[in-house]
């Protein structure tokens, strides 16, 4: 556990002198095997790189990668400032910012300030040759861009300088519903409408269906956020109009209180797999059919795994409105470079279960689920019910290990990733010695 950047550099120097595979683990975001774990080689934890230093005059926060987001918000609690970060407190800082939630962080505040990576002002980076550099837009512009969605291919980040934003009390919490057919139809329509009619950039949601198959529990969980002290008029009405929710935890609270309160959604002691797909937003007319087909496919495939011990299946519908893409570009852009021509929905899949002995079964279930999503989307594009010839990149932090994250980027961004990697790691130290999504050769 290095405690300083210099100690991390010394570790890299030692690793460069041998052939051991290794892994670097921050708080933990991507559960794919060997992405932040290793079999036989050293595991380098950034847990002790956990500074949170607010500079109110500069309106910046220096954050170590070993933090989790609720530790960051706890340190900032009462300061009047926050940062663009994770939506569940238990999520780790390092993987979230580098792994591109799309491009380093999908946040409740993304329609105000872009992806979390769009608010990173500086990366302190240990390179493959064990040198330490400060990466900013002016010092290393190409590397600065490549780090906004390029994963762990360029070095080890030991601190981030983030833009701090003024904040007071916020409003939010969870709505939980039984997943009856009627409620499911209403929620799918509500999230579609919310994505298209994103009238207030201070609002954010995650709409998640969860099935605990062993006990046949089907629920919807809506995570709500508003960057203001009161529920805004009209913005969330279609969710509240469903009315027969089982639980409503929404209230005025601090950012730290909300993020910590969302930690109940993290099931500890289980094996996790994740996967993702991106879809164009269907029209209001076609929405019931298209959204219903996606949801029904998830239900049907999940049913094939109902005998797996401890299985919990979930699918999240996450708005990616045009407004978010516009803000991200205005703030300097990123590797994902989402166009602002259409609204999109990011589909996030999770299957958690008790024993690694079930991994091969769930591996197949996961690939069948997101593969089916892609087939459904392409079918509706061919029939004219979804827009054709649109850019649909993958969400790296939720990609399953076989998914082709870099292959779904724009060609010019992939070319940038390759060029920068060749410049900063010409011997392929990080490409060959660590796991994660690797930049394919030309």
Automatic annotation (TrEMBL):
Keywords: FAD, Flavoprotein, Oxidoreductase. GO terms for molecular function: FAD binding; oxidoreductase activity. The keyword Oxidoreductase applies. Coiled coil: none annotated. Residues 1-167 form the FAD-binding PCMH-type domain. Belongs to the oxygen-dependent FAD-linked oxidoreductase family. PANTHER family: BINDING OXIDOREDUCTASE, PUTATIVE (AFU_ORTHOLOGUE AFUA_1G17690)-RELATED, FAD-BINDING PCMH-TYPE DOMAIN-CONTAINING PROTEIN. This is FAD-binding PCMH-type domain-containing protein.
